[in-house]
Each structure stands twice: as C-alpha cells, then as structure tokens.
C-alpha cells in the first residue's frame, strides 16, 4: 500500500482513531454529561437521586464558604502562573546562555516534573516539614517561626511553592526549545548594540517566543486549578481552617467526604465553565499580544 493510500483510506483511519474515541467517550464525554445531569439532583448513597432543579446552583450562589474557595482558587492559580512563568523564564534563559553542561542543568531542572504529583507532594512535605524539614531550621534561623500545620498563610505559601516547583520543568522544556529557535543573528546584533542580558531577554527574546509563552500561560492556568489536588490532599488536606481549600479539593470533599454528589456535580460544572471562559479569554488575548511572525 502506498503512502498516498494510507492517508486516504477512511476505514483504516477510523480503525486507528477508534481506541482514542472509545477512551474519550468513556472517561471524558460520558462523565461530563453525567455530571451536568447529576447537578440537577440531590444525590446521595442513602436517599438516591431526587430531582431538585437549580437548587444546587442556588446553594452555591448563596454560600460564603464557596465564594471564599473561589477567591482562594483564583489567587492560588494566579500566583502559580506568575511564579512558574517568571522562574522558568529566568532559568531557561540562563540555560540557553551557557555552553558547557547544558544537558546536566536541563535534567536537574526537569526531574521534578517527571515525579507524579503525589510523590512530589510527599517529597516537599518532608523538605518543608515544620519539625523535620531540611529547610525548616535555616528558615527559623532567620527569626521566622515555621508552623504551617496550624498557620493558614504559611500553609498557602508552602503549597504554592510546591506547586511552582513541580511545574517549572514542564515550562523549561518549551521555553528552552523556543529560545533555541531564536535566530543567532538577533543575538549577535543585540550584543553589538550593547544591549544588556536583561534587556535582551525582555525586549528581544520574549516577543519572539510569545506564542510559546501564551500556550504555557494556558497550560499553567489549567494546572493551577486542576493539577494541584494531590499536593493539597497530602500536605494540608485543605487546612488549616480552609486556608488551602481550593475549588478542586473542595469539590472532592463535597463528593467523597460529605457524599453530596449532586452538589459536587454542580461545583464541577461551575468550575469547568469558569475555566473554559478563562481559556477563551486567554486565546483571544493571544491574538492581540502574541507575535506569530509576518
């Protein structure tokens, strides 16, 4: 069979796509439709499903605890995106500038991303543990009392640092690849003009790699809202006093601790719609600020 026939055979294309479609239907589309339908019911293990219409959404609209979780999640995701992008951009630029040992530096930066989120959470838990943490004594030597098991702001900061640390490697992979595609002539011209490294990064490289940066902003936003559940669960369990009770963990507690599956489904629908609208807005902004050449 020729190459032309391989790409024009609809039956063969359908067979190749079938496993992906089956997995998507079973584990993506069906749960989505099921969650939307279940959000209109008061569902529990004891009483079964009772249709309540929009009551679950009314409860969400009038819940101060849920509003607090929403604001906390927005703050957390924003800090994650800004922190990851800033640190990864600086690290990627430094790796791009060196000539010797670049591969070793890349491996050192990327390896936390290779860890499963649960493992990364456990590693950081022991690193920053208030009693046995490696860095705890150094921080307390500065006169700072480390007790994030009972201090809400400290717990928020510790989980935030862990989330940023876990995601830096993912961003560095894309940023170093994008920086590697910057024409060498631009770098040489900037050096001849006496442009400092900081100005070269911000005024020359960043505009050129802006499509990659926009993509990473979107992926980091999704990560900030959905990808940090394991860290919160293992490190703080949403505490202390709800200081790290972000939406994805609040949804989990509603469903699997309080067994209010209908209410949890309504929370999942609201979270999905909110993040979807945020993604749409970021895509629209990318058309205005990202440089695609031409």
Automatic annotation (TrEMBL):
GO terms for cellular component: plasma membrane. Gene3D superfamilies: MetI-like. Its main location: membrane. It is a multi-pass membrane protein. Residues 70-282 form the ABC transmembrane type-1 domain. Pfam families: BPD_transp_1. It is found in: Cell inner membrane; Cell membrane. GO terms for biological process: transmembrane transport. It comes from the Archaea. Keywords: Cell inner membrane, Cell membrane, Membrane, Transmembrane, Transmembrane helix, Transport. The chain crosses the membrane at residues 12-30, 70-95, 104-128, 148-165, 204-226, 261-280. Belongs to the binding-protein-dependent transport system permease family. The complex is composed of two ATP-binding proteins (UgpC), two transmembrane proteins (UgpA and UgpE) and a solute-binding protein (UgpB). This is sn-glycerol-3-phosphate transport system permease protein UgpA. It comes from Haloarcula amylolytica JCM 13557. The lineage of its organism: Archaea, Methanobacteriati, Methanobacteriota, Stenosarchaea group, Halobacteria.
């Amino acid at each position: 069979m020729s190459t032309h026939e391989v790409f024009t055979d609809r039956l063969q294309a359908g067979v190749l796509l079938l496993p992906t479609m089956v997995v998507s239907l079973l584990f993506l589309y069906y749960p989505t439709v099921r969650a939307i339908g279940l959000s209109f019911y008061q569902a529990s293990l004891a009483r079964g499903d009772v249709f309540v219409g929009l009551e679950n959404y009314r409860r969400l609209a009038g819940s101060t605890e849920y509003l607090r979780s929403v604001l906390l999640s927005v703050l957390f995701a924003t800090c994650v995106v800004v922190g990851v992008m800033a640190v990864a951009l600086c690290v990627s630029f430094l790796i791009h500038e060196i000539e010797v040992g670049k591969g070793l530096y890349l491996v050192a930066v990327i390896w936390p991303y290779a860890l499963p989120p649960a493992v990364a959470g456990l590693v950081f838990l022991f690193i920053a543990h208030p009693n046995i943490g490696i860095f705890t004594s150094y921080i307390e030597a500065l006169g700072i009392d480390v007790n994030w098991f009972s201090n809400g702001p400290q717990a928020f900061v510790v989980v935030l640092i862990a989330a940023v640390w876990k995601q830096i490697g993912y961003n560095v992979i894309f940023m170093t690849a994008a920086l590697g595609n910057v024409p060498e002539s631009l770098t040489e011209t900037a050096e001849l003009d006496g442009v400092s490294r900081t100005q070269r990064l911000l005024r020359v490289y960043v505009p050129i790699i802006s499509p990659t940066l926009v993509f990473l902003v979107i992926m980091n936003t999704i990560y900030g809202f959905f990808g940090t559940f394991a860290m919160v669960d293992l490190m703080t369990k949403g505490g202390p006093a709800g200081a790290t009770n972000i939406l994805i963990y609040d949804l989990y507690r509603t469903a699997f601790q309080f067994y209010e599956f209908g209410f949890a489904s309504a929370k999942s629908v609201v979270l999905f719609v909110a993040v979807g609208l945020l993604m749409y807005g970021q895509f629209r902004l990318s058309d205005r600020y990202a440089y695609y050449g031409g």
